């Protein structure tokens, strides 16, 4: 067993420097690496390029990094919940690349699995496809998309072990398994970290080979973005 | 004229037994409330769940369990979770039978625009571009005209496109339209709405053959 546990979030994020490209897991505020984001705010790392499906909300998730102007460029599919984001984008302070959600996921998986590029029908005929190679397969037009290149991937799991094996819960899984192993170094923060040999190998979602550093987050707020309930009759 | 709930009820009639269905945000989400009795349907939410159930009761919300609109949800018996790449694999691989989504504009060749208003609104496409490029069967739920009374059913979309030549059917507060190789065909009109009213509210040309029946909404 190769031991991946680090003792603190500070140790986990060592080597993240100004100007780097980070992948961050999560969909909305669900399954985001909130301890790592808080530490990035403290570290004041700047000029970051962030690959993440969303940009958080004004005061949580990646919104915290946006408020401090630590992000130079966002690559996302949907950024609708963040007023500060919209302001920075419209004034040109923030560079934004919006791409289809499935393309975002697949560009992560391609990076993880050694596929340099792939063709997808998504975005053909739209402004997103401008400048990209297109090709017809089986009578349908497709757009070529490239694997991402990132310095660090930061993912969040429910449980993990010291070998870096990960188990996710519910829809907090989302982009996390696609990003693990898709960057030069992958950092996993987990709600519960156990010794290797404790988790059932049959139940592992992300094998430890994709994770270089793992730590247990100090606390999880797990904020709900849109609390929606049904009335009892 | 139909309410949003009525539009959802009419679209629910298009959902067939054994369908896997992806519902977009807004009116499409309401369709789940009106699925015909006696059929088996599973809802897919592209953030990574199949077998999505209704909203939770108060106190039972789980931060780790949301739909693509970021709302708290529950799951039904037989549900499963998966990652985003697998989720869009289901969508591009055409394992999802029906996609229902909203739109700002639809054109007579089946183009759809629903993700951006240049210099006014830039929220992003989310999964919409993957869904419309991949799905065989796409139904759009939308309002026929905007607040200024201008038609959103057009000869050609004016907003940045989400997908080209993909929409099969449109249900609005006024009508049910089918996208045919020759353009929009008027299939049904809302109760009490005349064919003339629909023509006047539609910028695109309409193919009108014989008597146009009224929609049946229970």
UniProtKB/TrEMBL annotation, chain A:
Protein name stated in the entry: 3-oxoacid CoA-transferase subunit A
InterPro entries noted in UniProt: 3-oxoacid_CoA-transf_A, CoA_trans_fam_I, CoA_transf_BS, NagB/RpiA_transferase-like
One Pfam family hit: CoA_trans
One MF term in the entry's GO annotations: CoA-transferase activity
Keyword Cytoplasm on entry: no
Keyword Transferase: yes
Family designation: Belongs to the 3-oxoacid CoA-transferase subunit A family.
Domain of life per record: Bacteria
PROSITE patterns tied to this protein: COA_TRANSF_1
Protein source organism: Flavobacterium fluvii
Keyword terms: Transferase
UniProtKB/TrEMBL annotation, chain B:
Alphabetized PANTHER family for the sequence: KETOACID-COENZYME A TRANSFERASE, SUCCINYL-COA:3-KETOACID COENZYME A TRANSFERASE SUBUNIT B-RELATED
Protein species of origin: Flavobacterium fluvii
Entry-linked SMART domains: CoA_trans
Entry-linked Pfam families: CoA_trans (PF01144)
InterPro entries per record: 3-oxoacid_CoA-transf_B, CoA_trans_fam_I, CoA_transf_AS, NagB/RpiA_transferase-like
GO terms of molecular function: CoA-transferase activity
Keyword line: Transferase
Protein's name according to its UniProt entry: 3-oxoacid CoA-transferase subunit B
Similarity field: Belongs to the 3-oxoacid CoA-transferase subunit B family.
Keyword Repeat appears in the UniProt entry: no
């Amino acid at each position: 067993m190769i031991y991946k546990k680090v003792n603190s979030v500070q140790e986990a994020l060592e080597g993240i420097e100004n100007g780097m490209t980070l992948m961050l897991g999560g969909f909305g505020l669900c399954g985001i690496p909130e301890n790592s984001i808080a530490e990035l705010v403290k570290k004041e790392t700047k000029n970051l390029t962030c690959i993440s499906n969303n940009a958080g909300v004004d005061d949580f998730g990646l919104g915290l990094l946006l408020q401090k102007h630590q992000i130079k460029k966002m690559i996302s599919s949907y950024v609708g919940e963040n007023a500060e984001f919209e302001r920075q984008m419209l004034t040109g302070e923030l560079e934004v690349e919006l791409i289809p959600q499935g393309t975002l996921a697949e560009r992560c998986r391609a990076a993880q699995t050694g596929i340099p590029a792939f063709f997808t029908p998504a975005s053909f005929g739209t402004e997103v496809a401008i400048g990209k190679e297109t090709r017809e397969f089986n009578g349908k037009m497709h757009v070529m998309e490239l694997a991402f290149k990132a310095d660090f991937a930061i993912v969040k799991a429910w449980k993990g072990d010291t070998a870096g094996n990960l188990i996710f819960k519910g829809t907090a899984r989302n982009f996390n398994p696609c990003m693990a192993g898709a960057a030069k170094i992958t950092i996993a923060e987990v709600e519960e970290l156990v010794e290797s040999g404790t988790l059932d190998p049959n139940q592992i979602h992300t094998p430890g080979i994709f994770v270089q550093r793992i730590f247990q987050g100090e606390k999880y707020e797990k904020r709900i973005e849109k609390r929606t309930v049904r009335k009892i009759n | 004229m139909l309410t949003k709930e009525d539009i959802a009820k009419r679209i629910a009639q298009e959902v067939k037994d054994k369908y896997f269905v992806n519902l977009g945000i807004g009116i499409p989400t309401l369709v789940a409330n009106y699925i015909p009795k006696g059929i088996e349907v599973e809802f897919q939410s592209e953030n990574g769940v199949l077998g999505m159930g209704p909203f939770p009761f108060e106190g039972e919300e789980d931060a780790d369990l949301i739909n693509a609109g970021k709302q708290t949800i529950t799951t039904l018996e037989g549900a499963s979770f998966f990652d985003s790449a697998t989720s869009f694999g289901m969508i591009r691989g055409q394992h999802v039978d029906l996609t229902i989504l909203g739109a700002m504009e639809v054109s007579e060749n089946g183009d759809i625009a629903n993700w951006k208003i240049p210099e006014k609104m830039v929220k992003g496409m989310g999964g919409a571009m993957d869904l419309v490029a991949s799905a065989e069967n796409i139904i759009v739920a939308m309002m026929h005209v905007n607040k200024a009374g201008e038609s959103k059913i057009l000869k050609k979309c004016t907003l940045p496109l989400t997908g080209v030549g993909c929409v099969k059917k449109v249900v609005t507060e006024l009508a049910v339209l089918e996208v045919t190789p020759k353009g929009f065909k008027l299939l049904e009109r809302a109760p009490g709405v005349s064919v003339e009213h629909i023509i006047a509210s539609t910028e695109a040309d309409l193919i009108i053959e014989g008597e146009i029946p009224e929609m049946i909404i229970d």
